[in-house]
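I'm stuck. Please check this protein.
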Amino acid sequence: MFPPPISFLLPARVAPPARHKESKKDETPRRRTLWRLPQGASHHTSEQGAASEEPRRGTRAASREEKPVKLHYEGSETIRVAKDEVRRFLLDPEQVGRCLPDLHELTASDATHFVATVRVGVGPVRGLFKLDVTLHTEGEDDLRISLRGSGMGSGLQVESQVHLEALAQGTRLDWQADATVSGPLASVGGRLLEGQAKKTIEQLFASIRQTLEAVGV
């Protein structure tokens, strides 16, 4: 009998465990995950678009706010007081200042100038407005009231011409006012701003008449 082959005498060789080779299928998900970047990039682009849109909106809004609105009003009051007394009243900063609608604070700076703080409300725009007012004389029968105001990011300029005419039983006061409004107040626009501005100016001259007649200056 022949001896057994040497291979039968040696212990069986155990094959090493097969290495797990990452298949393309295993790599594919990773690549897909990385390729979400274009989606992120697309999202980033959309954010850039939104960001660029904001300045455009802001520019348009600023443009609307910076564009001033010009208004013109005129009217007349018949006052049962002599013309000289009416004229004297209109050149008194404290007296005229107290006639401002919604007056919050008043300081007479000198003989022809006063500073006032008033409450302003036009639609959603509401707050305090600081006014610098100067009274000018332009002859025996004519006066001018210059007003500059600011508040809530808005600006206001008003030039009002006043003409006095003596009547048999008092004085006729004719006035006309040109106003320029800028900022958020101007952005309100339309009939709302025009109506409120007209009401405020009319109230001023009506209050002057009422005060003069009440105290019998």
User: Anything to note?
Assistant: The helical segments are 6-9, 24-34, 37-66, 83-90, 93-97, 184-188, 190-215. Confidence is low (pLDDT under 50) at residues 28-65. The chain has seven helices and seven strands. The radius of gyration is 41 Å.
